[in-house]
Design brief:
heterodimer, A: 494 residues, alpha+beta, Copper Amine Oxidase, Chain A, domain 1, Immunoglobulin-like, Aminopeptidase, 3 domains, six-stranded mixed sheet, five-stranded mixed sheet, elongated, B: 181 residues, two-stranded antiparallel sheet, globular
Chain lengths: 494, 181
C-alpha cells in the first residue's frame, strides 16, 4: 500500500517537472515583433501557445480572448484590457494590423497572473517588420470625459460620456465609491450633493479618478454601459427615506441659492405646491420687443402666485427666488425631494404668429412616453431576469417614465388651468398640448408647464407688467389649484 | 350655290381652327407641368397654421430617392426654405440648415442642424421648429419613428430650453391637424 502511494507521488513529481519544462519551452517560442521600436507579441501566437479562443465581439467589435474560464477584452484605442470586467492598464496600446492583434511584450507579465497562467520571461526573437514606420501608436490622448449628475427621489445618476468610458473601473470602499477612467480627463472637479444618498463628488488631481462620498441613506449601486454614444452610468440608490439636493454647480455658471436640506414639513391638512419660475441667470428665455425678459416675468408671477396660495393655506416652495440658473432636472428634483403634491413650471410663450394670444398648458408627451414604454417592454422581453446591462438601461428608462403614471392627473389639472385662463383671456380652448419637456420628466406628482401668455403678441406684452392684469392671471391660476387641494389634501384628524 | 358651299366650308374650317387653338395651349400647359414634376413625386411638408396652431400639409414635388438619408435631407432642406401660403407659416429663420442626416436603422434617425435653427425662444416657436422637422419626416416616412436632434454636431439637453433632446424622441402626432390624417 505504501509502495503504491510512493509510486503515485513519483509519477506526480515527474508530471510536474515535465509541465514546468514544457511551459518554459513554449514560452520561449513566442515571437516578438518590433513595431515603432517597441516589442509586441501577436495574440494568435499567444493563443496558439496557451490555448483558449480568440475573436472579435460582434457588437462592440473589440478583440477578445477566452482562456481558463476568463474573458479578456482588448482595446485598440487605449493601453487597457478588461479581464472579467476588471480593467488592467498596460504599458503599450494594442495594435491591430492585417486582422491580427499585437500586444505589448509586457502584456504577459501584466495580465497572465490574472488568468492563472504562470508568467515566464519571453526570449526576445526579433522579427523584422517593413511596416514599422507606417503604424501610428494610439496612446492615451487628453480627451475630455463629459459628466452629468441627475438627482431624483431616492436615486442619483452620474453619467460619464467619452471614448472607452465603458472600461471604467469602479471600487467601493467604506464610505465612498471610486470611478477610475481608462482614458481622458473628467470635466467636473467638485459637486456638492447635500445630504441623503451622497454628500459630495470630487476628482483627483489627475482628473482621472472620481470619488463619490456616500451618505447615510445610500443603499446600493449599479453600473450601466451604454453605446452610441459610449456612456458609463453609475446609479446610486437610496433606502427610500429621503434624497439629496444638488446645492452647487457642476460648472461655474450654474449658480444656485440654498434650498432646505431636509424635506419640507407639510401642514397636516394642506398640500405642497412647487412653483418653478422658468429660465433664469444666463438663460433669459423669450424676449419681448419691449425688452422684457421671460426669466424676470416668470419670477415675478411665481412669487405673486406663492403669496396668493399661502394665503389660502397651501404650502409653496419656489425652485428659485432670484435671477439664477438651475438645471432643468434639478427643478423637478426639488419637487421630488420635498414630496410635493403638484409641480407647476411658469413660462411665457413666443410664436411666429404675432396675432396668437392667450394661455397654453403643456404636460409630458404621451407619444414620447409610449415610445419609451415600448422600448422598456422590448428590453424586459429581451432579458426577463432583468440582470446586468439591460437592467440598468431599464432603470434609466424608468427614470424618464416617472411622470407617466401621473399623466392623467396632470392632464386634468392642466385642463382646469387652461379653462380658467381661457375665461380670463377670452380665448378659445386650444387644448392641453404635449411634448417631452425636460423639466417635467422624472416628476413624481402631477406636473404642468404653464405658458401664461404670448410675449410675441404686442397687446399681451404691454400688459404683462400691469398690476391688474397680474392679479387676474394669478386668480385664474389659483382657482384650479384650490380645487386640486380640495381633492388631495389629507383629512384633519382630531 | 358653289359660292355658298365654299363660304360654308371656310366658316366650318375657321370654327374648327378656332376650337383647336385653346386645345393646343392647354396641352402645352400640361406638358410644362410634366417637365416640372418629371421624375418627381408629391410629398408633404408640415407647417403650422395661424388658425389652429397645428401642422397642416403643404405639397411639394421632390425626387424620390431610394437612399432614405438623402431623401430626408432633401425633404428637410425643402421644409427650411419653402414659403407656404397663409395661414401657414415657415417658423425657421434665415440661415437655418440641416448639416447631416444619419439613418441608424429603418426607424431611427439622427439629424444634425445648425445653430441658426435654435435661435428664438418660447415653447411654441420651439415646438413648431422641432416637430415641424420630425413630424414632416414621420408623415412621409411613417416607419421612421425615433429621432435624435443634435446642433452643430453636439448633443443638447434641450432643443431651445424646454424639450428634451438628450434622447431619441418620437413624432408628436397630437400637433398634426385633422388634415394630416
Amino acid at each position: 500500500m505504501k509502495l503504491e502511494h510512493n509510486k503515485r507521488k513519483y509519477i506526480g513529481f515527474v508530471v510536474l517537472v515535465y509541465f514546468i519544462f514544457f511551459t518554459l519551452s513554449i514560452s520561449s517560442e513566442l515571437k516578438v515583433t518590433t513595431i515603432n521600436g517597441k516589442d509586441y507579441i501577436d495574440l494568435n501566437e499567444i493563443v496558439k501557445t496557451y490555448g483558449g479562443t480568440s475573436g472579435k465581439d460582434e457588437i462592440s467589435k473589440y478583440p477578445f480572448w477566452i482562456i481558463n474560464g476568463h474573458r479578456v477584452v482588448f482595446s485598440t484605442n487605449t493601453p487597457t484590457v478588461s479581464v472579467d470586467s476588471k480593467i488592467v492598464h498596460l504599458k503599450l496600446t494594442p495594435i491591430e494590423r492585417d486582422g491580427n492583434l499585437f500586444l505589448g511584450n509586457e502584456f504577459l507579465k501584466e495580465v497572465f497572473p490574472l488568468l492563472n497562467i504562470k508568467y515566464e520571461k519571453v526570449e526576445k526573437e526579433k522579427v523584422a517588420s517593413n511596416e514599422d514606420n507606417n503604424i501610428e501608436q494610439k496612446e492615451t490622448q487628453g480627451d475630455i470625459v463629459k459628466t452629468k449628475v441627475d438627482i431624483s427621489y431616492d436615486l442619483i445618476r452620474i453619467t460619464f460620456e467619452g471614448t472607452m468610458v465603458t472600461f471604467s473601473e469602479v471600487k467601493k470602499s467604506n464610505n465612498a465609491i471610486i470611478v477610475r477612467l481608462p482614458r481622458g480627463k473628467l470635466e467636473i472637479k467638485e459637486v456638492n450633493l447635500g445630504e441623503g444618498i451622497a454628500t459630495k463628488i470630487s476628482t483627483d488631481s489627475t482628473l482621472k479618478e472620481m470619488t463619490v462620498f456616500l451618505d447615510v441613506n445610500f443603499k446600493s449601486f449599479e453600473t450601466v454601459k451604454l453605446k452610441n454614444p459610449e456612456r458609463f452610468v453609475l446609479l446610486l440608490k437610496g433606502s427610500g427615506q429621503k434624497t439629496s439636493i444638488l446645492k452647487e454647480e457642476s460648472k461655474g455658471e450654474n449658480k444656485q441659492q440654498n434650498f432646505p436640506d431636509r424635506p419640507f414639513e407639510k401642514k397636516r391638512n394642506s398640500i405642497l405646491v412647487v412653483i418653478d419660475p422658468g429660465h433664469g441667470g444666463n438663460d433669459t428665455g423669450a424676449i419681448a420687443k419691449s425688452g422684457i425678459m421671460e426669466k424676470d416675468l416668470t419670477l415675478l408671477y411665481s412669487t405673486k402666485l406663492k403669496e396668493a396660495l399661502e394665503k389660502e393655506g397651501i404650502d409653496v416652495i419656489l425652485t428659485r427666488n432670484s435671477d439664477t440658473f438651475i438645471l432643468l432636472k434639478e427643478r423637478t428634483s426639488i419637487a421630488n425631494f420635498n414630496k410635493a403634491d403638484l409641480f407647476i413650471s411658469i413660462h411665457f410663450n413666443s410664436s411666429p404668429f404675432k396675432n396668437v394670444k392667450g394661455s397654453e398648458s403643456y404636460i409630458m408627451s404621451k407619444d414620447a412616453s409610449d415610445l419609451w414604454s415600448k422600448e422598456l417592454a422590448e428590453k424586459e422581453n429581451a432579458q426577463p431576469s432583468g440582470e446586468g446591462e439591460t437592467k440598468g438601461e431599464i432603470n434609466l428608462i424608468l427614470w424618464n417614465l416617472a411622470q407617466n403614471q401621473y399623466l392623467v392627473e396632470s392632464a386634468s389639472v392642466a385642463g382646469e388651468l387652461q379653462e380658467s385662463l381661457n375665461q380670463f383671456f377670452g380665448t378659445k380652448d386650444r387644448g392641453v398640448r404635449q411634448a417631452p419637456f425636460a423639466v417635467l420628466e422624472g416628476a413624481m406628482m402631477p406636473a404642468i408647464l404653464l405658458e401664461v401668455c404670448f410675449l410675441s403678441n404686442q397687446e399681451e406684452s404691454l400688459l404683462v407688467k400691469d398690476d391688474k392684469f397680474i392679479d387676474n392671471v394669478i386668480s385664474s391660476i389659483k382657482a384650479p389649484i384650490l380645487r386640486f387641494k380640495e381633492r388631495n389634501a389629507p383629512p384633519v384628524n382630531n | 350655290m358653289l359660292r355658298q358651299l365654299t363660304i360654308s366650308l371656310l366658316l366650318i374650317c375657321s370654327l374648327i381652327s378656332c376650337n383647336r387653338t385653346p386645345t393646343v395651349e392647354t396641352s402645352q400647359e400640361v406638358s410644362t407641368q410634366d417637365v416640372v414634376t418629371e421624375g418627381k413625386k408629391e410629398f408633404f411638408l408640415l407647417y403650422p397654421s395661424s388658425v389652429d396652431q397645428k401642422f397642416h400639409p403643404y405639397s411639394v414635388f421632390l425626387e424620390e430617392n431610394e437612399n432614405k438619408s438623402l431623401f430626408i435631407k432633401e425633404l428637410i432642406e425643402s421644409l427650411l426654405k419653402e414659403i407656404p401660403e397663409e395661414p401657414l407659416s415657415n417658423p425657421f429663420g434665415e440661415g437655418s440648415e440641416l448639416r447631416a442626416v444619419y439613418l441608424l436603422d429603418d426607424r431611427s434617425v439622427v439629424l444634425d442642424l445648425n445653430s441658426k435653427v435654435v435661435q428664438d425662444g418660447g415653447v411654441e416657436n420651439e415646438m413648431f421648429k422641432l416637430y415641424g422637422i420630425i413630424n414632416s419626416i414621420n408623415y412621409n416616412l411613417p416607419q421612421v419613428e425615433r429621432f435624435k436632434v443634435i446642433i452643430d454636431g453636439q448633443e443638447r439637453e434641450t432643443f431651445i430650453g424646454h424639450i428634451d433632446t438628450s434622447d431619441f424622441i418620437p413624432a408628436e402626432k397630437s400637433m398634426n391637424s385633422d388634415a394630416t390624417k
